TrEMBL record:
Ribosomal protein found in the keyword field: no
Signal peptide: 1-24
InterPro entries, per the entry: Bact_solute-bd_prot1, SBP
Organism the protein comes from: Klugiella xanthotipulae
This protein's name: Carbohydrate ABC transporter substrate-binding protein (CUT1 family)
Cross-referenced Pfam families: SBP_bac_1
UniProt KW keywords: Signal
Gene3D superfamilies, alphabetized: Periplasmic binding protein-like II
Length: 432
């Protein structure tokens, strides 16, 4: 949503020499000064890593930072993404008791937090770190000022079971019509074609996002994000196309109550254990799937392909939907918060993040450390995309995004119409 993270066996182990060198490099620049014994400091760090290899990486990072900064304690906690984004962080910010370092999503949500004075400007304290991720940081900036730094960025696509595709005689879909044909062939071969974690809401919403991306012209998308103008007929058409797709019954039984990423019975777990052939999900999903198999390994049958375009629609067939995960500091956080963020974004930590299979790093020097061929395919897909549209709930902000997602889930449940989604978005926009 925003996007969204993941036990892959073979997480890179850092030697003492590498750790010392990385931390020494951090403390030797404006991006990571040692505290110098100025008193005890406790940093609270909230993130969305609850499964797969990345929790262990963040635990190591916290311990390493503490070792290099005497007097500093880092209390890091992972929460389920939806709970963190929709409840915990907004409530903590509104109550004036936020964590120091926390997950910050770009787009409308970031703009709202900046308007309320919740976030620390970062350019003066960690300028070198910000420069290291290039233009990827742009969605985390407001009026040219940086309030968050993305540690991973990628696009959404289909994670699929190559063995089941081969058995059913399915080739990689090049259009949505091909995808419909694939659903039919997979079902005829005795497989559940697609798993969706509609019980968590946002995975269902992403299906409508993709239909909107492929139905609406780039100009219409840009205008909607700028002016909240949803008058173009393509927005309703997106819902109609999704409604027709749901009508061919591509999803598993009970999809409305299925979670996305928690446990073997989740949509990711169904793909991991061969119970479904596909899942539409973000770039982090290989790590999530690997953490839900019996041997805690990414299954050898896992593959990935980009979302195809819709023949005859106004949308750009090569446009992709995506986003990333970033961290920012609360406005009340101590200076050590920015130093910790700089260390998280160091080349060494970014390489470990990449090697863990948890996602695509944003520091370019770390991309070569990607070991998972699926993540490499996502990185190649990102490079081949004509443009990347931020997740719509991220781009439009919390008020419009929540209303939009509610309307989409209602459509999945048969309790709403394609027009209802757009009406909810328009009504929510008028309250801002």
């Amino acid at each position: 949503m925003n996007s969204r993270s993941m036990k892959r066996v073979g997480v890179a182990v850092v030697t003492a020499a590498l750790t010392a060198a990385a931390l020494a490099g951090c403390s030797g620049s404006t991006d990571g000064n040692n505290t110098g014994g100025g008193g005890d400091v406790t940093l609270t760090w909230w993130h969305n890593a609850t499964s797969g290899p990345i929790p262990a990486v963040w635990e190591d990072v916290a311990a390493e930072f503490e070792d290099a900064h005497p007097g500093v304690t880092v209390e890091q906690t992972g929460y389920q993404n939806e709970e963190l984004q929709r409840t915990l962080i907004p409530n903590a910010l509104a109550a004036g008791d936020p964590p120091d370092l926390f997950q910050v999503w770009p787009g409308g949500e970031l703009r709202d937090q900046v308007d309320n004075g919740y976030l620390m400007p970062l350019d003066d304290s960690i300028g070198d770190t910000i420069a290291s991720v290039g233009t990827t940081v742009t969605p985390w900036q407001v009026d040219g000022v940086t309030y968050g730094v993305p540690f991973t960025f990628g696009i959404e696509g289909f994670w699929y079971n190559t063995d089941q595709f081969a058995e059913a005689g399915v080739e990689i879909p090049q259009t949505f019509d091909d995808l419909i044909d694939a659903v039919d062939k997979l079902r005829d071969a005795g497989f559940t074609p697609i798993a969706v974690g509609a019980g968590d809401g946002w995975p269902a919403a992403h299906w409508w996002y993709q239909f909107a991306l492929k139905s609406c012209s780039p100009e219409t998308l840009a205008q909607a994000e700028k002016d909240f103008d949803f008058s173009d007929g393509c927005w309703v058409e997106a819902g109609e196309r999704l409604q027709d797709f749901i009508g061919i019954e591509p999803f598993q039984e009970g999809f409305l109550g299925t979670p996305a990423q928690q446990g073997a019975g989740s949509s990711a777990g169904m793909v991991a254990n061969g119970q479904a052939s596909m899942e539409l999900m973000g770039h982090w999903n290989a790590g999530t799937i690997g953490g839900l198999t019996a041997d805690q390994k990414v299954p050898p049958f896992l593959g990935w392909f980009p979302v195809p375009g819709i023949t005859g629609a106004d949308g750009d067939p090569k446009a992709a939907l995506g986003g990333g995960d970033g961290f920012g500091c609360s406005a009340s956080a101590p200076p050590e918060c920015a130093e910790l963020l700089a260390y998280i974004m160091s080349e060494d930590v970014q390489k470990r993040f990449a090697a863990s299979g948890s996602g695509i790093p944003t520091v370019s020097a770390a991309v070569s450390s990607l070991d998972d061929p699926n993540l490499t395919m996502v990185a190649d897909g990102l490079a081949a995309s004509s443009s990347v549209q931020l997740w719509f709930d991220t781009a439009f902000g919390t008020t419009v995004g929540n209303a939009m997602n509610e309307g989409i889930v209602n459509l999945f449940a048969g309790a709403g119409s394609p027009k209802d989604i757009v009406t909810k978005m328009q009504d929510a926009a008028e309250t801002q």
